[in-house]
Design brief:
Belongs to the NAD(P)-dependent epimerase/dehydratase family. The chain is of the alpha/beta class. Helices cover 40% and strands 16% of the residues. It has a domain of 228 residues: 3-Layer(aba) Sandwich (Rossmann fold). The chain contains eleven helices and 13 strands. It binds nicotinamide-adenine-dinucleotide.
């Protein structure tokens, strides 16, 4: 298939481009580089040994999106493009609703006009809301605790309604747990701009000397060591999950599918710190700080639906995730170069 990867220059999109090419698909990327560096493209081409066509524009632009579909052959879309920082979404809710929803509407309209019926969407475990039952199964009710999360809940609803209106559509929403790690080459990885919002890139920046110490937000949760527990999933396993979902929906007859992509294992903040110290051979200084508003004690998937229906399993351990993150961070202490 020729797959349009929206947000394909970003963290998860770039790793998925590699997996798609390895699986024999052709790839076209659209990204406005609002949260990515153009230098990732050369690295993707070097790693895949193929040229990766890139269209650089904002998907909320309906005319440009239409022009893209009119001029490229596209069999399926994987839609990663969107803003993703929870705290920023609280400060700038309109930017989040507009970017995440309008980009999805543009794509869905262009897909309909050009008879493209297959779509895989980046959703998130955040749609399970503030007090989910554990482990989280796909049939739990959805809600959110911040505007970013609501964009995911709303887009899932839009996709469900659109799929119900046309039984030729093949749509999947993939609910990611906590993606971490990097490509095994160490040449592509997560490159947050500014202060990282997520634990693993922050730990990596402490290890490499870019930041002095880590703040651990809360050590009095109802978890084995008191720190927050999350289901970390290697980005390469996540990327493989997209290829599996794409294959499954395009061969199937179900208009709308939802799958959790996680390992099913909860790992605490202190366990991540210890694993990263093992991987890097460096100490990770940390201090205990107050809980962060909106954080929940524990989050982990029941991945059994994806396991049985997609034949997909997360294969990598927390030690693999830390080793690959460290390889990326130590080869690229300041992330991707500007040019
Ligand atoms: N990383 C996570 O922890 C996580 C967890 C759950 C879900 N997700 C979702 O997965 C998707 C990808 O996440 P990521 O971590 O790779 O983020 P990312 O920011 O690295 O990638 C998103 C890409 O989309 C591009 N983009 C944003 N808005 C755009 C627009 N209007 N038009 C064109 N390009 C646009 C950005 O430049 C960026 O390259 C997002 O939808 C995110 O919400 C991420």
């Amino acid at each position: 298939m020729r797959v349009l990867v929206s947000g394909g220059a970003g963290y998860i999109g770039s790793h998925t481009v590699i997996r798609l090419v390895e699986a024999g698909h052709d790839v076209v990327v659209v990204d406005d580089f609002s949260n990515a560096k153009p230098t990732v493209v050369g690295r993707l081409e070097a790693l895949t040994g193929t040229s990766v066509p890139v269209h650089s524009f904002d998907l909320t632009d309906v005319d440009k999106t239409e022009h893209l579909f009119a001029n490229e052959t596209i069999d399926a879309v994987i839609h990663f493009a969107g803003f993703k920082a929870v705290g920023e979404s609280v400060a700038k809710p309109l930017d989040y609703y507009q970017n995440n929803l309008d980009s999805t509407f543009s794509l869905l309209r262009a897909m309909r006009r050009h008879d493209v019926r297959t779509l895989v969407f980046s959703s998130s475990a955040t749609v399970y809301g503030a007090e989910p039952r554990l482990p989280m199964t796909e049939d739990l009710p959805t809600s959110a605790t911040n505007p970013y999360g609501w964009t995911k809940v709303m887009i899932e609803q839009v996709l469900t309604d659109v799929a119900a209106s046309d039984d030729r559509l093949r749509i999947a929403a993939l609910r990611y747990f906590n993606p971490v790690g990097a490509h095994v080459s160490g040449d592509i990885g997560e490159d947050p701009s500014g202060i990282p919002n997520n634990l693993m890139p922050f730990v990596a920046q402490v290890a490499v000397g870019r930041r002095e110490k880590l703040s651990v937000f809360g050590d009095d949760y109802d978890t084995p060591d008191g720190t927050g527990v999350r289901d970390y999933i290697h980005v390469d396993d996540l990327a493989a999950g997209h290829v599996a979902a794409l294959d499954r929906i395009s061969a199937g007859t179900t208009p709308m599918s939802i799958w959790n992509l996680g390992t099913g294992q909860g790992v605490s903040v202190l366990e991540v710190i210890k694993a990263f110290e093992r991987a890097s051979g460096r100490p990770i200084p940390y201090e205990i700080a107050p809980r962060r508003a909106g954080d929940i004690a524990a989050s982990y998937a029941d991945p059994s639906r994806a396991n049985s229906e997609l034949g997909w399993y997360a294969t990598k351990t927390i030690d693999d995730m830390c080793a690959d993150t460290w390889r990326w961070q130590s080869k690229n202490p300041n992330g991707y170069p500007d040019a």
